[in-house]
Amino acid sequence: MKYGVAIFPSKKLQDLANSYRKRYDPHYALIPPHVTLKGPFEATDNRIKEIASKLEEITSKVKPFSLNVLKVSSFQPVNNTIYFKIEMTNELETLHNSLHGEDFFNEKSEFSFVPHITIGQQLSNDEHSDVYGQLRMLDLRHEEQVDRVHLLYQLENGSWTVYETFRLGEE
Amino acid sequence: MKYGVAIFPSKKLQDLANSYRKRYDPHYALIPPHVTLKGPFEATDNRIKEIASKLEEITSKVKPFSLNVLKVSSFQPVNNTIYFKIEMTNELETLHNSLHGEDFFNEKSEFSFVPHITIGQQLSNDEHSDVYGQLRMLDLRHEEQVDRVHLLYQLENGSWTVYETFRLGEE
């Protein structure tokens, strides 16, 4: 079974992200707008309790923090994903590192962590320049509090279901 | 903002439900397969913490229980919804009653509670007889444990995001 760990932002920010995802993101119907902390990883069905208890340990040590949306950005030339860029914070870095360290299945991340909310992906080069050209000008500044993260699992159709919520800074 | 309370069954049961929902349920992309404990209700944005704390109180008093799928059934003649019928248990009844009682916004349910997982809805009469005629014969017997319920909120596009998970029988 595939698992992942993510933050779901407020309804306000999700609605804004969805107004773009609807047109530009083929994953629109599979998962609500989110900040990925740990991308899809395989674990056997009965390991979910172990995963959940490790996550509880990790999240209990991180205090609620401010999530700042900075601007629209793009991963080009690596790929044609367009996203809301989120300001890096100590808390995001700690969560990401803990979820990719020795205590959490020791699955190191191949990429450096760029916190973001995807709003478009799998775009052709032309679509990408067109859409990015329009959206990069947007004044998106937005700040909100994050006080929880979610553990999800993936169904056969590719969609994600929340298994559990973890409140930050709580034992 | 609109809220709801639901149980998400195991991946196995969700995958099975989705194999039908994909074709017969227009809500397929808006929410994973679920058992509704309290249907959509309005509350102001800042009431969510109050709602969550009431839910915590309610769910702490109910022990984990067995969820039994009995058969495929239909709400006809009330409407053309086809569903997996779930066996009523004391725990389901207690959860439902607590979520519709005086302690929980005092919003009485108009309908008697029939626990179910919808697999088809908004079907024409012909589709309904056709699909129900085929599915009512299925031997669906399935049993699993339920140890958590979820509080969700609805986005502007109609999809649902999990706000919080509550484990049954835990303070």
UniProtKB/TrEMBL annotation, chains A, B:
Its EC number is 3.1.-.-. GO terms for molecular function: hydrolase activity, acting on ester bonds. A motif (HXTX 1) lies at residues 34-37. Pfam families: 2_5_RNA_ligase2. The active site is at residues 34, 116. It is an enzyme of class 3 (hydrolase). InterPro entries: 2H_phosphoesterase_YjcG-like, Cyclic_Pdiesterase, YjcG. It comes from the Bacteria. The keyword Hydrolase applies. A motif (HXTX 2) lies at residues 116-119. Keywords: Hydrolase. Belongs to the 2H phosphoesterase superfamily. YjcG family. NCBIfam families: PRK13679.1. This is Putative phosphoesterase D0469_10195.
